TrEMBL record:
It comes from the Eukaryota. The keyword Transmembrane helix applies. Residues 1-27 form the signal peptide. This is Uncharacterized protein. Keywords: Membrane, Signal, Transmembrane, Transmembrane helix. The chain crosses the membrane at residues 189-208.
């Protein structure tokens, strides 16, 4: 019986030691490569914006090792790696890009090239099956020839700052915002909001024009009255002079 109890205790002790050894092996993140640590954190939904060294990445992974991996994030990691490969293989010079976009040198062309480069770097260019790419044009690209350059520059500065601020948000926040926008588009709420906004703007413009027309009419009426008063005074003054001469 004693031998049996000792055997059971020994087996339990061995199991505990094996578990501790396995746990220790799993948590020895300092032996892993940085890219592996980045993936392990990514699939757990964790970002480390301040991590610059391997020790920092390993320490951050140690803090979040209990979190489970998420399948959708694992798929997103693979998609990002495929995107990075396609972006690296995309060999297109500035001149080739502008030629395909039917653009010549100038501020408008430089803004277009800069927008493409920024979106390509940030992972916002779509690689289509036919070999072409799709990206978002600058906000003022179509209207730039008809708007004052200072106004175009101001619009692009504000829009660029807003986009950069949005990209600095945590990935989870961006996903929530994008999910909300998708819902707004699918449900028609976004279109309804745009219609309401355009209606309000149109009414405001019409009311402003009506008010301006009324003001113009009042100004014109006031000028007519003023001219009549001046004409009356001029006529009255002339009559008095004539009577004085007759006397």
């Amino acid at each position: 019986r004693c031998w049996r109890e000792m055997t059971l205790r020994s087996s339990a002790l061995v199991a505990v030691l094996c578990a501790c050894a396995a746990h220790g092996a799993e948590t020895d993140y300092s032996k892993l490569k940085i890219v592996t640590l980045k993936r392990m954190l990514f699939v757990r939904g964790i970002e480390c914006t301040h991590c610059t060294t391997k020790a920092e990445w390993a320490s951050h992974m140690q803090l979040h090792s209990e979190l489970p991996e998420r399948e959708e994030l694992a798929a997103e990691w693979v998609a990002q790696k495929e995107y990075a490969k396609k972006a690296k293989e995309l060999s297109m010079t500035r001149d080739e890009f502008l030629k395909q976009m039917n653009e010549t040198d100038g501020v408008r062309a430089e803004r277009l090239w800069a927008a493409f480069q920024e979106q390509l770097r940030d992972g916002h260019v779509d690689f289509l099956e036919n070999g072409s790419v799709r990206f978002s044009m600058p906000l003022t690209h179509r209207i730039a020839p008809f708007v004052h350059p200072a106004l175009v520059e101001a619009i692009e500065t504000v829009a660029g700052a807003a986009q950069r601020s949005y990209r600095r948000l945590p990935r989870q926040w961006r996903q929530q915002v994008e999910a909300l926008l998708d819902w707004a588009v699918e449900s028609g709420a976004l279109h309804a909001a745009v219609v309401v906004l355009l209606t309000v703007i149109l009414l405001d413009v019409l009311l402003a024009r009506r008010s301006q027309r009324r003001d113009d009419q009042l100004d014109e009426r006031a000028e007519q009255i003023l001219r009549q008063l001046k004409a009356g005074r001029a006529g009255g003054g002339g009559g008095a002079t004539a009577r004085g001469a007759g006397i």
